[in-house]
Design goal:
Layout lengths: L8 H11 L3 H9 L4 E5 L1 H7 L13 E4 L8 E3 L8 E5 L11 H5 L3 H4 L2 E3 L1 H18 L11 E7 L4 H14 L6 E8 L8 H6 L4 E7 L4 H12 L4 E6 L2 E3 L4 H11 L3 E5 L2 E7 L12 E7 L8 H4 E5 L1 E2 L3 E5 L15 H11 L3 E4 L4 E3 L5 H20 L3 H25 L17 H5 L4 E3 L1 H8 L1
Parallel strand pairs: 1-2, 1-4, 2-3, 4-5, 6-7, 6-9, 7-8, 11-17
Antiparallel strand pairs: 9-16, 10-18, 11-16, 12-13, 12-15, 14-17, 14-19
Helix pairs in contact: 1-6
C-alpha cells in the first residue's frame, strides 16, 4: 500500500475500519442474548471477518433472515419477524440502512420487531468520518508536495529536436512523485503536441501547454512558471543533451544546502563589467562581459571541481527558487531576458551560481532548423554578392534599435550591480579564472560525497 495512489484509498479505508471493530465482542453479545434474534448482513460480515460467523452456529435463539450465508443457522422469512424478535444487521450499507432491500420490501418491519441494531455499520460510519479527510489529504492538488517543476520550452515547429531532447531527458532524469514535467509547445503547428506523452509516458507527471502563438523565450517560460507548483523550478530548452545522470539531484543539492543561492545554471555563466567607453551614447551597451559556455566537457576547468558564483547564467538550463518570479516579457527577443532575470535575482539579495552538469547544446538541431540555417547563410551570401541585402540590413537595424531600449532599461535598474574593470588590467586578457579567484566557490565533492552516502 505504501506507494499506491488515490484509487487505492478505498482499500486502505476498509482495513482501517476493520481494525475499529472487535468481532469477537459483537458475536459474544449476540450469543448471550436471551431473546429470539434474527441476523442480517452475514455476507458482509463473512467478507470482513472470514469464518467468524460460524461461531454463532447451533444457537437455539438465532436465525438468519432470508437466504444469507450461514453454516447451520435456521432461516426465517422477513414477514415472520414480530415483536418477539430483535434484528441485528452485521453488514454495511452505503446510502443508509433504510436502503436495505428488506426495508424496501417490508417497510413496516421496524414496527414489527422488538429492537434493531447495526454495530458494524455504526462503527464504520464513525471511523470513516474521522479517517477519510486525513487519508485522502495527500492526494489533494493543493496539498500534494511538488519539489521540482521541470519546464521544457519547445521552439517553433521543432518537433524533431524536441523528440530527441526528451529521449535524452528520459535517459538521464528519473521520474519521481515530487517532480512534475511541464512542456510548453510555443506556437508550433507540427506534431510537437503529441511528443511529450509518447516519450515520457505515464511514469512522469506531465503537463503540456500549447500556445496558439509563439510567445518568445520569456513568454513561453512564463506559461510554465505560472502553473508550476514546485518549490524549485528548472527551465530548459529543446536543443540540449544530457550527459550526467545526477544533473537534477546536484542542482537541487546546492539550493537545499545553500539558502543564499537563488539561481544556479548548468550551461553558461558570465561576469558583467561597466562599459564606460561611451557614457553619452544611448545606443551603447552599459556592460561588457566575459562568459563560459559548457558543452558537456567543461571548457572552464574550474567548474569541473567547483560551483562558482557568477553574475549571470544562460537559461538553456537553470534551476531557481519559485519566489524568484517570472521572466520579463517586455524585452524583445535579443538575448537579454536571462541576463535580466539573473540580475533581478541578485537584486533580491540572492547569489547566482554556475557549474558543469554535462549539458550539451546544439547537437540535436532538427532537420528543419538545420535546413533553415543553411538557407539563411546561402541567402545572406547571395545577397551580399549581388548587393541585394536591403532586407537584411533593415532587420539588423530593427534589432539594434530595440536594444537601445534594453540598454537604457538595464542601466537604470542594474548598473549598481555591474563590476568595475580592475585598474591597469587589459580587459581582453582578463580570464575567467582570474575573475573567479575572489568569488565564492563550493566544492562539488560535497554533493558527490552526500549522494554516495
Amino acid at each position: 500500500m505504501k506507494n499506491l495512489g488515490l484509487e487505492h484509498t478505498d482499500d486502505k479505508l476498509l482495513e482501517i475500519c476493520k481494525k475499529s471493530i472487535n468481532a469477537d465482542v459483537i458475536l459474544k453479545q449476540i450469543r448471550n442474548k436471551n431473546v429470539k434474534t434474527a441476523i442480517l448482513g452475514t455476507d458482509d460480515f463473512e467478507i470482513l471477518f472470514p469464518n467468524k460467523i460460524r461461531e454463532l452456529d447451533n444457537c437455539d435463539n438465532l436465525y438468519v433472515v432470508g437466504n444469507e450465508y450461514s453454516a447451520s443457522l435456521k432461516k426465517i422469512n422477513p414477514d415472520k419477524l414480530t415483536k418477539e424478535f430483535e434484528l441485528i444487521y452485521l453488514g454495511v450499507k452505503i446510502g443508509g440502512i433504510k436502503e436495505l432491500n428488506i426495508f424496501k420490501k417490508y417497510p413496516n418491519i421496524i414496527n414489527n420487531i422488538a429492537a434493531f441494531s447495526a454495530p458494524v455499520h455504526d462503527s464504520f460510519a464513525e471511523t470513516i468520518i474521522k479517517t477519510t479527510p486525513k487519508l485522502i489529504e495527500p492526494y489533494f492538488d493543493e496539498k500534494r508536495k511538488i519539489k521540482h517543476s521541470l519546464i521544457i520550452l519547445s521552439g517553433m515547429n521543432n518537433a524533431n529536436s524536441l523528440q530527441a531532447m526528451l529521449k535524452s531527458f528520459k535517459a538521464y532524469t528519473k521520474p519521481a512523485e515530487n517532480t512534475e514535467v511541464i512542456v510548453v509547445i510555443n506556437g508550433s503547428q507540427d506534431k510537437s503536441i503529441n511528443i511529450p506523452s509518447e516519450i515520457l509516458t505515464f511514469k512522469y507527471n506531465i503537463k503540456v501547454i500549447n500556445t496558439p502563438k509563439n510567445l518568445g523565450i520569456s513568454g513561453g517560460y512564463n506559461e510554465g512558471i505560472r502553473i508550476a507548483r514546485g518549490e524549485y523550478i528548472s527551465l530548459m530548452q529543446d536543443d540540449i543533451t544530457f550527459k550526467q545522470k545526477t544533473w537534477l539531484e546536484e542542482l537541487e543539492f546546492y539550493l537545499d544546502n545553500y539558502p543564499n543561492i537563488g539561481l544556479i545554471g548548468g550551461f553558461r555563466g558570465g561576469y558583467y563589467f561597466k562599459n564606460d567607453t561611451k557614457k553619452d551614447d544611448n545606443f551603447a551597451s552599459p556592460y561588457i562581459s566575459k562568459g563560459s559556455q559548457l558543452i558537456g566537457k567543461c571548457k572552464w576547468k574550474l567548474l569541473q571541481d567547483y560551483v562558482v558564483k557568477v553574475d549571470s547564467v544562460n537559461c538553456m538550463l537553470v534551476m531557481f527558487r519559485k519566489e524568484m518570479g517570472l521572466y520579463n516579457e517586455y524585452l524583445l527577443p535579443n538575448g537579454i531576458e536571462d541576463i535580466e532575470f539573473a540580475f533581478k535575482v541578485r537584486k533580491k539579495g540572492y547569489g547566482v551560481y554556475v557549474t558543469d552538469v554535462g549539458i550539451t547544446h546544439g547537437e540535436l538541431l532538427s532537420t528543419t532548423r538545420q535546413e533553415t540555417k543553411l538557407d539563411l547563410i546561402k541567402d545572406f551570401i547571395i545577397k551580399k554578392i549581388t548587393g541585394k541585402n536591403k532586407k537584411q540590413t533593415k532587420h539588423t537595424l530593427a534589432r539594434r534599435l530595440s536594444r537601445a531600449y534594453h540598454f537604457q532599461y538595464f542601466k537604470e535598474k542594474y548598473s549598481d550591480l555591474l563590476r568595475e574593470i580592475p585598474n591597469g588590467v587589459n580587459f581582453d586578457k582578463l580570464t575567467l579564472d582570474v575573475i573567479a579567484e575572489n568569488e565564492h566557490k563550493i566544492s562539488r565533492s560535497e554533493f558527490k560525497e552526500s549522494y554516495i552516502l
